[in-house]
C-alpha cells in the first residue's frame, strides 16, 4: 500500500515517514501544500496523511482541490488540539478522519489501517483468504496457523492483494501502489515477488490471469 505524507515540519515529516515505512507501507513525502496537491492529483495513493497548516497552500484547500478533481483516496488530517473548527472544516472539505497534535504514532497507524480496510470493504483487522491470514495490526502472515516470514516487498504485495481479494490486479497497478516515487520501478520484479510468495505460502491462492494481472482467491476456488 502506498501513502502520501504532507507535513511541513521536517522532524514530524521524518517521524511519520519512518513509522509508516517500518509498518510496511511505501511512503512519499511533501513539505508544502502545492507539492502535496500535485502529488495527490498525479499519483495513485491508497491514503494520505495531510497537515492543515501548510505553507504555500493550506491543507483544506489541498483537500478540496483533490475532491473536486475526483480523487477519493482516504485522507487523515492532522490538526492542532485546540482548533476544533479545523476538524469540522476538514470533514466538510472531504476528510475521512483526523488526529489532533500532539499525537501518539500508534494512533496514526491504527487510524490509517482502519481507513485502508474500509476503503477496500474490510471491517476486521485480520484479512483472510481461505487458510491464508494477514493481521494488519502486527504484520503477521500465516497459512493454516503456520507463520510465514516475508520480506518487506513480499509483504506489501501480499497485503495489497489481500485488501483487493477477488479482483484482478494488473502489474501496472501493483507497481504504482507498492513502490514510492523514488524507487526504480520495474514491472518484471512483480513476477519475481509473486513467484517467491507462491513458494513461501505453499498454497494455490495467487492466480495469474493472462494478459490482465493477478487474482487472489481461496485455494478451493483456484483452477
Q: What would you note in describing this structure?
A:
The structure is a single chain. With 223 residues, this protein is α/β, with parallel strands linked by helices. It folds into two domains: 2-119, Rossmann fold, CATH 3.40.50; 126-221, Orthogonal Bundle (Arc Repressor Mutant, subunit A), CATH 1.10.10.10. It is 41% helix and 22% strand. It contains eight helices and eleven strands. The chain has helices spanning 10-22, 33-42, 59-68, 84-93, 105-119, 152-163, 171-178, 188-201, and strands spanning 2-6, 26-30, 47-51, 75-80, 97-101, 126-129, 132-135, 141-143, 146-148, 206-209, 213-216. Helix 6 packs across helix 8 (188-201). The model has no long low-confidence stretch (mean pLDDT 92).
In short:
The protein is of the alpha/beta class and 223 residues long. It has 8 helices and 11 strands.
